[in-house]
Amino acid sequence: MDLGTGGKRHLARIGTAAATFVATLFLFSCAHTPAVSDTVTNAPAAAAVPAEATIIWPTAGWSTSTPEAQGIDSAVLADALQQIHARHIPIHSLLIERHGKIVLDTYFYPFADNRTHNVYSVTKSVTSMLVGIAMAEHRLNDLNAPVYPLLAMASSDDPRKARITLANLLSMTSGLNCRGEGNSTLLQEMLHSRHLAAYMLGRPTDNDPGTVFDYCGGNSEVVSAVLTKTTGGSALDLAKTELFAPLGITRVSWSTDTDRVSHGWGDLELQPRDMAKLGYLWLHNGRWEDKQIIPAEYLTQALTGHVNVQPGINYGYGMWLYPGHTPVDFEANGTGGQRITVIPSLDMVEVMTGGGFDANEVQNLIAPAPKSNSSIPPSPAGSARLASLEAELAGASATRLTSEADTSSAIPVPKPKPEPSLRAATIAAETAVPVPHPKPSRLGS
Question: pLDDT by residue for the chain (445 residues), tens digit each?
Fold first, then answer.
């Protein structure tokens, strides 16, 4: 999106008072992962969403709203955008949806609107949801069944491997060794093999299945291979017809290997507004319009904490859970700052994409913005300022903001180094654990 297009779009929002709203990433080796806790988190309670008759379904596109109309303070969002720029946070996009309407949809130059973005490990969450869809179609029946028969493979001589289930793979508790050799990561080694899933299952075991959390892209690759074996097509094929099409998602790419297995761990590319649709689907318990896309029973299991990663953070089936809030906040989380965060207590979805930033830093900036579960008094000045900032950040004139912003409270973070190639970044990052911080306090928590 060039500056002219961005300016027109945001000036139109000012004219209709429809300006928008905004709602560490610590990477560490799979070799240093915590053990499974005996304590797990119950699945989140029903979301505080509008009554059935008032739900807005954005299949054909999102509606927009001023922040104040949805109980959000536009001044807080404007301050957040200025801080993001002042701190040189390498974010690419920031979107917030509330009550079915987008209140912030900001793009940071040179990333532009209407572009897809590699969502990295958010892909793992999508792979998990496809397992639920396959179960609804009776292609898969039991998450606790051993994986080897599902792949029509002879059972391993290792009795621990023979017990590995889909549930273990989805919760990152397979027990398989996920460490690379020397300076190589497991993912780098796996991508050099002819059959990726077979390579992963050929790894030695370190622990009994279901006992130790070890975040590993290879686990999700095996899950994707199971989907291919049981459905007859790739995970991408299944997603296009059974997940993306009902939501109106048409611009998507997802790398698939020579075995027709989509990379279950990463490489899915989506537009930020389509990422928000996935969050909206999860917020509404897997239902879209009059169709149950993801079985509610499976989604409940996916959003149940099967692993205690660290205090305040649990892991479900491809989902990160934050039991400190009621209902539980949850998210799909990828390295580099990719996130789809769902906050049921606020009926809100936040989406971020980036090139290597701490998404927790941005979430802390936007956390104070929600002021009410209903509308608050309009703020024409705040809406105008927010829209102006969005337009400038989307265009080349964004550099002007440094001198205009009040940076007295900004943390002086240096500008990031040039990003490596997208492919190299994916390979290097997807074997690291993108563990976020426990979420900041929320309205109604």
Answer: 443 444 444 434 434 433 333 333 333 333 334 445 444 545 554 455 555 558 999 999 999 999 999 999 999 999 999 999 999 999 999 999 999 999 999 999 999 999 999 999 999 999 999 999 999 999 999 999 999 999 988 888 899 999 999 999 999 999 999 988 877 788 889 988 889 999 999 999 999 999 999 999 999 999 999 999 999 999 999 999 999 999 999 999 999 988 999 999 999 999 999 999 999 999 999 999 999 999 999 999 999 999 999 999 999 999 999 998 788 999 999 999 999 999 999 999 999 999 999 999 999 999 999 999 999 999 999 999 999 999 999 985 555 554 444 433 433 333 333 333 444 444 554 545 555 666 666 664 4
Distance CA(46)–CA(24), nearest Å, equals: 28
ω into residue 246 within 30 of 0, thus cis? no
Say what the pTM is.
0.83
Residue-level length of the chain:
445
Cis peptide before 327 (omega within 30 of 0): yes
Please count the other Cβ atoms lying within 10 Å of the Cβ belonging to residue 62.
Answer: 18
Distance separating alpha carbons of residues 49 and 115, to the nearest angstrom: 29
Cβ atoms of residues 39 and 430 within 8 Å: no
State how far the Cα of 87 lies from the Cα of 165, in Å rounded to an integer: 45
* Position 133, amino acid: I
* Bridge partner list, 332: 340
> What's the number of CA atoms in the CB half-sphere (13 Å) around residue 11?
6
